[in-house]
Amino acid sequence: MIQTENNNFILTTENTTYAFRVLPSGHLEHMYYGRKITLKNIDAVTEKHAFVPANSTQYSREFDHFCLEDLCLEFSSYGKGDIWEPSVEIVHSDGVRTCDFLFEKFEVTDTKPEYKMLPGSYDESGKYEHLCITLKDKFYNHRIELHYYVYSQCDVICRSVKFINGGNESVVLNRLMSAQLDFSDSGFTFTSFHGAWAREMQRSDALVTQGKFVSSTVAGVSSNRANPFVMLSREGATEDYGEVYGINLIYSSNHYEALEVTAYGKSRFVNGINPATFSYVVNPGEDFESPEAVLTYSHEGFNGMSQNMHHFVKNHIIRGEWKNKVRPVLLNSWEAAYFDINERKLVNLAKAGKDAGIELFVMDDGWFGERNDDHRSLGDWVVNKKKLPNGLEGLCKKINSLGLDFGIWVEPEMVNTDSNLYRAHPEWSIEIPGYEHTEGRNQRILDLTQTAVQDYIIESMSSVFSSANIAYVKWDMNRIFTDFYSQKLGAENQGEVAHRYVCGLYRCMKELVKRFPHILFEGCSAGGNRFDLGILSFFPQIWASDDTDAVCRAEIQNGYSYGYPMNTVSAHVSACPNHQTLRTTPLETRFNVSAFGVCGYECNLAEMKKDEVAAVKAQIELYKKWREVLQTGDFYRSRNFLTSNTTEWICVSKDKKKAVGFMMQKLVRPNTRYECFKAHGLDPDAEYHFYSFGMKYNIKNFGSLVNTVSPIHIKQDSLLEDIIAKFVKIDGETEDCLVNGDTLMYSGVKLKQAFAGTGLNEETRYYPDFGSRLYFMEC
Ligand code: GLA
Fold first, then answer.
1. Catalytic, out of 546, 547, 634, 683
2. Which sequence ranges form a coiled-coil region, renumbered to this chain (predicted)?
3. Residue 373 a catalytic site member
4. Helices (H), 633-771
5. Known catalytic membership, residue 546
6. Which residues have CB under 6 Å of ligand 1?
7. Residue 414's closest CA among 440, 451, 392?
8. Domains and CATH numbers, the chain
């Protein structure tokens, strides 16, 4: 709901209130954002300004009783007394940098105009709650539009800002933030997610009591170094209790999130395009639109906030045919064969996949040009006939005839200097002529600021995607930017490269998704180097990390889950020792972790041991039965490896009739036998059947200890051990009981006793290093 009486603007969602007003001076004073309140007495929530303290400046002679330095503002700029993190920075043609944007008018509509170059949130109904406030600069003719979109059911408010040059001269826009959020107090914990390749989404908490904390990147992609999703929480917030704000940006390039505490103990948060690499020339009559920011608040802890974000992303970001479709179980060729692929090998792998229950076979890198390693051929999207003599179509037909869908890997934004494309169009590459180029994975980035390059990508990809019955595309992007330079833009426009690039990318993605609506697109950038709401506005899922180690993955997926629903997080079971860490984890744990994302496989099923293949087959069968719950249900976190030896999640179906729980331990601690599984999100009054499937253990896992229960002596590592291991397994525990939702949630279920140096029997929970369990609940 949007209320606009007396120039007080109150936006209400199901559980939150957002309020600001116009001051007599024309500035917008931010009054409140948080838990829903009845805002009858506006006076009660506004600051009383009677004088300006020494050493601060008076805004004007007329308004000499207040200072912009000590005011909660809705939109701020440097100057006129405000010395904190601004929302806009403009260099006017006369060199003046001061701005003073004051209220001009407002409008409430039920529409949402599309951004010219950027993706944004949407509502299937086509009806919106939209407030637009127009501000006008006091000295120049420029205007700012503040747009607010209220998504009541998921407690989300989206914001975007438009700058309009109303003067007769060009200006340089050095900053335009997407959202500003002022609080009259401080002491927030700023949570951001950092990392590197294979180490995405590592949570970091910083208590900001003075100064400024910034999470940002200039890598040219939203990046694994700092994801644009961040949280602000008040003291004492936990997964289930306390006040948490979640903030994201619908953008895939350089971004900036800052929380600054002022001298007067107020806090100001801003997010938007990173000003560090940005300057944009806006000519008279032209405008510039910021990316859309997404804000949510919950007083029910991090889980409450995540629920809001998950609902929002599922309903108002993800689009297209795959939005509500259950995703197929795929087998990807990368870790099975890397670049060393050919038709025979791929078909064999696909056959093994089919036997195990795989539904979609994906050929990764290596199929085009002379692509035998990562040194050449990016840009030349022509099939390598030595590897695939029957072309994509021939291979695809063979895969389809096995009863599998066929998918393909591409990296359209890149070029190797050793490629026909580069030889023909060196000016299409982002590089500074005459400078030695800073290489990354031996490849350069195509200059997507150029329409001709966008057209090349659209047409070359269209011809690949239509050359066979392609059901799935993995769209990769494997290097970061370091030197932004377009050979086609003028010197004064070089500060626009990063932004123009991502807008060019969005045009390509939008067009290809429109041309190929049936294809399931998966984003990727060396794993999760571009995992953001911009990409998710076109592609419904993203390869979350090249790290498939189950321990790392549990941490990484836990990180993503704060801001992103788990059906956007693609997760594969891979071989052990793991190719990124050389760690060995149980196969069931690798599956259990993957099952909480969009589960797939990335290993050589054709060469796996028989009992492993049988286990994989059983996993896929189980996953197919439960994937609707896992992919569409509500996901909650309990414990995690940051603060505990255990990670614990649960996914609950929309109707609360079914749920799957996950529990995993990092390292065994001896003689810690008792554990309790605690659920979330169930119907407290319903009775659930709580159960697990008993596991069968290889006797070799028990070494010589097996002799304490074996009727005959089994020498470790002997032939006899090998033979017995083939036929005899040790049964593990099962859980099986009827228990009420309230008990499951508030008390938890006490699990069977874990192995503690003694107790080799089927009532014992064998829980080795990296052991895990799935628990099922049905009513
Ligand atoms: C990136 C991706 C991998 C794989 C390789 C292929 O690293 O993240 O999954 O596709 O590229 O070169």
1. 546
2. none
3. no
4. 719-727, 741-742
5. yes
6. 334, 364-365, 409, 476, 478, 524, 526-527, 543, 546
7. 440
8. 2-316 (2.70.98.60), 658-778 (2.60.40)
